[in-house]
Design goal:
- There is one protein chain.
- The chain is of the alpha+beta class.
- The chain has helices at 2-27, 125-133; strands at residues 29-34, 40-50, 55-67, 74-84, 89-98, 106-111.
- The protein is built from 2 helices and 6 strands.
Length: 137
């Protein structure tokens, strides 16, 4: 009688372990605000890298409605930025758009060869990154 109980307990433990990484991955997203159209933006906390003069991080934008694009709909984007807090400037380093709501199918990718630092446009993903990553003065 105890043997089936152990298998049930082990099975439950394995099921819990199997869902663990999914839960951990979801916990690494920190909401930072919304952009035009009400699209939610979240900081991927595990991507934040701090250097003396610059912080790099990736932000994820989930579109409320898929954006129509040649080749298929886009459900969201991931934007890697470099922020210089002392100067109040941001540069976009990478931008990826996804063709599924789970962010697994890259529909479009843009890698910036020479990043241009500038003050971000208010209400944009880079502006939210600057606000989130730099302490208020």
């Amino acid at each position: 009688m105890r043997l089936p109980l152990r298998f049930t307990t082990v099975g439950a433990a394995l099921a819990l372990f199997a869902t663990g990484p999914t839960i951990a991955a979801a916990q690494s997203l920190q909401p930072v605000g919304t952009i035009s159209g009400g699209n939610a933006v979240a900081l991927e906390t595990r991507t934040v890298k701090r250097a003396p003069k610059e912080i790099t991080a990736t932000l994820r934008t989930t579109f409320l409605k898929p954006a129509k694009a040649p080749g298929g709909d886009w459900y969201g984007s991931r934007t890697k930025v470099a922020v210089r807090c002392a100067e109040g400037t941001v540069a976009v380093l990478e931008n990826r758009y996804y063709g599924d709501d789970k962010f697994t199918k890259v529909a479009n990718e843009r890698l910036v060869k020479i990043p241009g630092y500038a003050a971000p446009v208010p209400g944009s993903v880079p502006a939210l990154a600057l606000k989130q990553l730099c302490p208020a003065k």
